[in-house]
Design goal:
The complex is a heterodimer of chains A (403) and B (231). Chain A is an alpha+beta fold and 403 residues long. Helices cover 58% and strands 18% of the residues of chain A. Chain A has two domains: 182 residues, no CATH class; 173 residues, no CATH class. In chain A, α1 packs across α13. By secondary structure, chain B is an alpha/beta fold. Helix content of chain B is 34%, strand content 28%. Chain B has seven helices and ten strands. The chains are: A alpha+beta (403), B alpha/beta (231). At the A-B interface, α1, α12, α13 and α15 of A face α2 and α3 of B. Chain A: It is a multi-pass membrane protein. Chain A: InterPro entries: ABC3_permease_C, MacB_PCD, Macrolide_Exporter_MacB. Chain A: Pfam families: FtsX (PF02687), MacB_PCD (PF12704).
């Protein structure tokens, strides 16, 4: 009996019990579909988080922070090192450094007439739009001249502008207040990165020139130095030299660090956490596959019992035990492969639906599809071998007499 | 003298029942020559079914020798026995034993499937056999769409499709009315006249009488032999 005949024979016996075959497939289908979907969503989520973290760094800028901020674990207030004016003068003198500035971060209440919105304050150089990943969609960005002159100008995120002014009013040119200080709105900004954290951190930002912010909040420590590098400079090399010199100046070999170190650390943690989560949920889905496999085994045992006489007839016509074994094994693998294939389709479909309807991106990898397929073949073999063997071991005389 | 097609030499069959032996066949010896039509007749419990299983290589003797076409069959492995059943024996059963989900044609093709014959050749040979038993126009019917006599004709076509040494029939008319039973025995006679070797096992003297030789069994022994009408 060759392969195509085996397939045809199995197909006709599955068709003889359509409902039963379909219900048996369903168990495998659900198992494989959930594995594919969970792995896809897990991997997609991980990729998105890592992209979001990586996009925090800007190409032509080195961000230097105190090590306490960079290392995992919350820094103790008051222990955190800050940069001094001398540090900035020191760095300014390096070859390869185009300009040096600093960024300030904080929270504050932004007021326009009777509207008050709690917003995140980000202050920095005129290139802050690169560092904080936004583009000005209305009005203009503040300039080097604004920074140098300590001008009271601000750029608002679209979300903040919407909450302060509502629709129908152009925010550009209006004056808002922060801690009592008036600020003229010069532009409205839209984020350029996929912001996975937006829902947690909020999207209400007010962007100020670093100098202006420092004037308003002189007690805020300067804990981030932004070094713009000149074209053609080796970023890694310059970063290492800057950190070394700043550490010597601070009399502390571990005082400062390049922020990319922090990002790599976070990336690793996030990667590990999502991998473990995917594995755990995937294992739960694997249990569904095992349950499906038990169903296949059960049905195959029923099928062997029901077809005992058929087995006897086939043996009397010259079927070897191997032929009987393969016939039933083909049937059970056919059930699981059909269930598995439909499960792959459903899993891909489910991860697409998740991809298009939720902020979680999902990526169906060919590895997950291959593993899903192999799992269904393996389930068919493992759960089919016992019933098939039982069929093959029947005594032909007993089988023929069975009613 | 020609070589016997099948020969039993002092064949015994017993089953262990507790510490005792239940002997079903006791020193059975006989031979069937090519082209013969033999009946084995006896009441139920005489051991004729066990004999038929041994002749059909579904079972093996406890002692003694069984030689089929010059080759001893005892001591063959399961796969070798399956091959002998496939090539040398054609079974016809009382209850037809057709596979219910297969058409008449597919049922007849089945032994050729296990013999590894290619699809086209299989179909050609199966069609030829069905034509011989007069069922050319019923090839696409499922067994439950056929009458008892038609089912038995399909079974005969199936038994002969792989050109076996012997056609072995176990109560071939047992599930049929008298008239249809006679028709089937008519087919056997016709096949015999064309040179097919046939062994029929029955309890019915009317059926047995179609053969050339009738062997009588009682309590696991061969107790006599007479000539039948077919001689």
């Amino acid at each position: 009996m060759n392969f195509s005949e085996m397939i045809a024979a199995s197909w006709s016996s599955l068709m003889a019990n359509k409902l039963r075959s379909m219900l048996t497939m369903l168990g495998i289908l659900i198992g494989v579909a959930s594995i594919i979907a969970i792995v896809a969503i897990g991997q997609g989520g991980k990729a998105a988080v890592i992209t979001a973290i990586e996009s925090q760094g800007a190409e032509e800028t080195i961000q230097i922070l105190p090590r306490e901020v960079v290392e995992p674990g919350l820094p103790q207030p008051g222990q955190v090192l800050k940069f001094t004016d001398q540090d900035f003068q020191l760095v300014q003198g390096f070859t390869g450094v185009a300009s040096v500035s600093y960024s300030l971060y904080g929270q504050g209440v932004v007021v326009y007439r009777n509207h008050q919105v709690n917003a995140s304050i980000q202050a920095g150089p005129a290139q802050l739009n690169d560092l904080a990943h936004f583009v000005v969609v209305d009005g203009r960005m503040f300039t080097d001249a604004d920074v140098a002159a300590h001008r009271s100008v601000a750029v608002l995120s679209q979300s903040l502008a919407g909450k302060l002014f509502g629709s129908g009013i152009d925010p550009v040119g209006k004056v808002v207040r922060i801690a009592g200080h008036p600020l003229q709105v010069v532009g409205v900004a839209a984020s350029t990165q996929f912001n996975l954290f937006a829902s947690i951190l909020g999207a209400d930002y007010i962007y100020l020139p670093a100098t202006t912010c420092h004037d308003f909040f002189p007690w805020w420590n300067i804990t981030e130095m932004d070094v713009r590098i000149a074209p053609g400079t080796d970023k890694a090399d310059l970063s290492q030299r800057l950190v070394t010199v700043l550490n010597i100046h601070a009399h502390n070999p571990n005082a400062f660090e390049d922020a990319s170190g922090f990002l790599i650390g976070v990336e690793r943690i996030v990667g590990t956490v999502t991998s473990i989560l995917t594995l755990v949920i995937g294992a739960v889905a694997g249990i569904a596959l095992v349950v499906g496999g038990v169903g296949v085994m059960n049905i195959m045992l029923v099928s062997v019992t029901e077809r005992t006489q058929e087995i006897g007839i086939r043996m009397s016509l010259g079927a070897t035990r191997r032929a009987i074994l393969l016939q039933f094994l083909t049937e059970s693998v056919m059930i699981t492969v059909m269930g598995g294939s439909l499960g792959i389709l459903l899993g891909v479909l489910a991860s697409w639906i998740v991809h298009w309807t939720t902020p979680l991106p999902s990526v169906v990898s060919w590895q997950a599809v291959a593993v899903g397929f192999l799992f269904s073949v393996a389930t068919g073999v493992i759960c089919g071998i016992y019933p098939a063997n039982k069929a093959a071991r029947l005594d032909p005389i007993d089988a023929l007499r069975y009613e | 003298m020609t070589e016997p097609l099948m020969a039993l030499e002092r064949v015994c069959k017993w089953y262990p029942v507790g510490s005792e032996r239940l002997t079903v066949l006791q020193d059975v010896s006989f031979a069937v020559y090519p082209g013969e039509f033999v009946s084995i007749m006896g009441p139920s419990g005489s051991g004729k079914s066990t004999l038929m299983h041994i002749l059909g290589c579904l079972d093996q003797p406890s002692s003694g020798r069984y030689v089929l076409r010059g080759r001893p069959v005892d001591g063959l492995t399961g796969d070798e026995l399956a091959r002998v059943r496939n090539r040398e024996i054609g079974f016809v059963f009382q209850n037809f034993h057709l596979l219910p989900r297969m058409t008449a044609l597919r049922n007849v093709e089945l032994p050729l499937v296990y013999a590894g014959v290619a699809r086209e050749e299989r179909r050609r040979r199966a069609l030829a056999r069905l034509e011989e038993v007069g069922l050319r126009d019923r090839i696409s019917h499922l067994p439950n769409e056929l009458s008892g006599g038609q089912k038995q004709r399909v079974a005969i076509a199936r038994a002969l499709v792989n050109k076996p040494a012997i056609l072995l029939a176990d109560e071939p008319t047992g599930a049929l009315d008298t008239r249809t039973g006679r028709e089937i025995m008519g087919i056997f006679t016709e096949l015999h006249q064309r040179g097919v070797t046939i062994v029929v096992i029955t309890h019915d003297p009317g059926v047995a009488s179609f053969a050339q030789r009738i062997l009588h069994m009682l309590d696991g022994r061969l107790v006599g032999e007479e000539r039948g009408r077919g001689a």
